[in-house]
């Protein structure tokens, strides 16, 4: 009886230890939560990937250093998450108009479907979403390796759905002025991303 009890306790202890390891000390019960914890505790430096913006110009991530970036990943033909994300970014654009005007914050929407999302499609996406004309860049990676590097660092997954679209995760990523991914907030709670950045802006 005692031997059985001890064996059961050992199995239970092993199970608890395994669960603790797999959930980062019981803090993460989904891969998304684990990703957010990892980003918060180990900021990720972004690769200097070239982007083509909706206005046709080419820019690099390094050129955006010195300001806070709020970044989302989209494809312009999406009729679900992305269309709502666009509206939420327009709200952020209005809410952060002051810091945007001071050059402290920029919004950046990146297409993970660059073959179909050229400058014309990106500009139309912003217009549909209510773009106010300043502080929000919609862009696509200029090459395939750049797209792969960005999706890897940001933890973006986009899987073709067989109908011409994608099933993908969505979030608002926060990049600090040093060019590091430091936080990931819910895509449908832009206020959380705004509060995060405002609390860290210098007067």
CATH architecture designation of the largest domain = 3-Layer(aba) Sandwich
Spatial arrangement of strands, main beta sheet? 1-10-9-4-5-6-2-3
Indicate the low-confidence ranges by residue numbers.
12-29
Helix content: 40-55%
How many domains, as an integer? 2
The computed structural class is alpha+beta
Short description:
The chain contains seven helices and ten strands. With 203 residues, the chain is of the alpha+beta class.
Description:
This protein is 41% helix and 23% strand. It has 2 domains: 2-36, no CATH class; 45-198, Glutaredoxin (3-Layer(aba) Sandwich), CATH 3.40.30. It has 203 residues and is of the alpha+beta class. The strands form 2 sheets. An 8-stranded mixed sheet has the order 1-10-9-4-5-6-2-3.
SSE diagram, text form:
Layout: H1 2-22, H2 31-41, E1 44-45, E2 50-53, E3 58-60, E4 68-74, H3 81-95, H4 97-101, E5 105-111, H5 119-129, E6 136-141, H6 144-154, E7 158-160, E8 166-168, E9 171-175, E10 180-186, H7 190-198
Parallel strand pairs: 4-5, 5-6
Antiparallel strand pairs: 1-10, 2-3, 2-6, 4-9, 7-8, 9-10
Helix pairs in contact: 3-5
How would you describe this structure in keywords?
single chain; 203 residues; two-stranded antiparallel sheet
């Amino acid at each position: 009886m005692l031997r059985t009890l001890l064996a059961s306790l050992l199995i239970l202890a092993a199970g608890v230890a395994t669960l603790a390891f797999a959930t980062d000390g019981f803090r993460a019960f989904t891969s998304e939560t684990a990703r957010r914890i990892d980003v918060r505790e180990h900021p990720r430096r972004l690769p200097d990937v070239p982007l083509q913006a909706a206005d046709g110009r080419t820019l690099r991530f390094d050129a955006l250093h010195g300001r806070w970036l709020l970044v989302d990943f989209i494809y312009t033909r999406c009729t679900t998450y992305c269309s709502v994300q666009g509206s939420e970014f327009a709200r952020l654009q209005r809410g952060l108009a002051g810091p945007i005007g001071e050059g402290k914050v920029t919004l950046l929407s990146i297409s993970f479907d660059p073959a179909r999302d050229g400058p014309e499609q990106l500009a139309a996406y912003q217009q549909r979403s209510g773009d106010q004309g300043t502080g929000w860049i919609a862009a696509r990676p200029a090459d395939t390796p750049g797209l792969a590097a960005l999706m890897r660092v940001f933890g973006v997954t986009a899987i073709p759905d067989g109908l011409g679209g994608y099933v993908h995760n969505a979030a608002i990523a926060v990049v600090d002025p040093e060019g590091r991914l430091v936080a990931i907030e819910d895509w449908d709670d832009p206020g959380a991303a705004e509060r995060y950045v405002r609390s860290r802006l210098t007067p």
